[in-house]
Amino acid sequence: MSLSSKSAEIQRLIEMFETEASKFHNIQFHTFHITQEGTNIDRRFAPQNHAIMLWQYYGAIEGKGDIDQLVSDLEDSDFQWGMRGSVLSLFGVIEGDACKLFVRMACRAGSLFSGDDAWNIGSRVVSELQATEKERNPSAKPTAVLNDNPLAMWLNFLLYHLSLSNPGREHACRIEPDPFTLSLLALERLANDQSVGKVDRSTRKLKDLRFKVAFSFPGEKRRYVSRVVDALRDPLGTDSVFYDHDYQAQLARPNCDTLLQRIYREQSDLIVVFLCAEYAHKQWCGLEWRAVRDVIKSKDDERVMFVRFDDTKVDGVFSIDGYIDAESFTAQQVADFILTRVAELGEGG
């Protein structure tokens, strides 16, 4: 059964994880690599914890000796903890007072996926290992194992989601944000894309696009911003809204900061900036904000629109600057305000 046919269940899970994320549970998600030489685990786990194998790279099978060793390892393995003799294993550990609750909810979320989905999710890292081995020895048969337990599938999907939304962060030992919040964001991706493999919404080159609206915001406000974006897609049309999730492949390159600054300064009619405490302190937001300030300096301030979540001081924003209060208006209402501004800019052009 496809994910598109499970929209009602996805929505129920979104509501469940939203409730728990709002409680700020003391809970953490860690990953640990284990090799034949040892592990990067160097501490004790919290009393409430749950560990599970996510995937393993067994190694290259090249001849009869390797096949015999594989058979022997299969016979001697305790599959609760994976396959004996693997070159590299990745384990996930959930720790904290709400550990049992999260595990139950994550198992339900992991049940959304088919076997093919599980492979698509887990193969991102494993396939890179296999490709490297094939380059080294084309005649070898790199062998990998993925855990299809629903909990493992969900944790693998959270890492997959991070690899798309925050490349590199999925390789950290401690995974941020907390697993309830991360699950909420990942479910919203599922609800939006209705597919594990769908990443970018556009195949056109970024340098050739002219956006009617571009969004600048911290990741902590992605849930709200994504709803605003969804409300704008139909009225504004394809490739009219710059939202980073829609252009992941094209943003995955060196000097991404200069590419983003060019999009804000030169390729967007209206720049909507979501101001808050997180925006004031995030490095990437700071890079985007430099481009926005340059637009204001050029007396193109009609191209800038502020949406505020709180009263945190942001350098370059003053008390005389107008804004939309995100705490007072829904995402749909903010989208309507943006459409009004887009129309005004169109009339002016």
Fold and architecture overview:
Helix 1 (7-21) packs antiparallel against helix 6 and helix 7 (222-236) crosses helix 12. The chain folds into 2 domains: 3-193, no CATH class; 206-348, Toll/interleukin-1 receptor homology (TIR) domain (Rossmann fold), CATH 3.40.50.10140. With 349 residues, the protein is an alpha/beta fold. Strands 1, 2, 3, 4, 5 and 6 form a 6-stranded antiparallel sheet that branches. The protein is 46% helix and 18% strand. 32% of the residues are buried.
Largest sheet: 6 strands, antiparallel
Rg is: 23 Å
Overall helicity: 40-55%
The whole-number mean of residue pLDDT values reads: 83
| SS field, number of helical segments | 12
- Return the domain count: 2
Distance between the termini: 48 Å
Question: What class would the helix/strand composition place it in?
Answer: alpha/beta
Strand content: 15-25%
The H-and-E topology, N to C, reads as HEEEHEHHEHEHEHEHHEHHEEH
Q: Runs with pLDDT <50, length 5+?
A: none
Shape: elongated
Extended strand count: 11
Give the SSE layout.
Elements: H1 7-21, E1 27-35, E2 38-39, E3 49-61, H2 64-76, E4 88-96, H3 99-110, H4 115-136, E5 141-146, H5 150-165, E6 174-175, H6 179-193, E7 211-216, H7 222-236, E8 241-242, H8 248-251, H9 256-266, E9 268-275, H10 277-281, H11 283-297, E10 304-308, E11 324-325, H12 331-348
Parallel strand pairs: 7-8, 7-9, 9-10, 10-11
Antiparallel strand pairs: 1-2, 1-4, 1-6, 3-4, 3-5
